[in-house]
Design a protein that fits this description.
The chain is mainly α. It has 6 helices and 2 strands, in the order H-H-H-H-E-E-H-H. It has helices at residues 3-21, 29-42, 45-53, 56-67, 114-117, 119-132; strands at 75-80, 102-107. Strands 1-2 form a two-stranded parallel sheet. The relative contact order is 0.14. The model has no long low-confidence stretch (mean pLDDT 92).
Length: 134
């Protein structure tokens, strides 16, 4: 994605992403103004993560990780059932890649930005996880 497209029309592209990634969630105009200020001062750095994901090097490294065998670190995955970025079906069957404990927590009526949309439920799930696995 080009920096120009992202910045055009006062970051309209970012607002569209938010609506698609977290349908029905509105963090408010003040939040978007703060986000745009942050983006204006940090571009193009916020895009580098997404560019790297599309690189052949990262694709090769991801294949190597999967081929190396099961993940041995206990993991909890939080996922919104209305996530328009990483579709809920993409999170199915992850446990097959783990030899350690794996727990999937799906939050109904939540999209991509769980920590903003459902902070109490996200915090409760994380605290429960740590309490159970000390």
């Amino acid at each position: 994605m080009s920096d120009f497209v992202v910045k055009a029309r006062d970051f309209r592209f970012i607002e569209r992403l938010w609506k698609n990634w977290s349908p029905g969630f509105d963090p408010g105009a003040d939040y978007f103004e703060e986000l745009k200020l942050c983006l204006r001062s940090s571009m193009p750095a916020p895009l580098e993560h997404y560019r790297a994901l599309a690189s052949l090097k990262v694709t090769r490294e991801m294949r190597e990780i999967v081929a190396a065998g099961p993940i041995v670190v206990p993991t909890m995955c939080l996922h919104g059932e209305r996530d328009g970025c990483i579709l809920p079906g993409m999170a199915d069957d992850q446990e097959e890649h783990f030899s350690a404990l794996f727990e999937m927590v799906r939050l109904a009526d939540a999209g991509h930005f769980l920590h903003l949309e459902r902070p109490a439920e996200v915090n409760a799930a994380i605290l429960r996880w740590f309490d159970a696995h000390r």
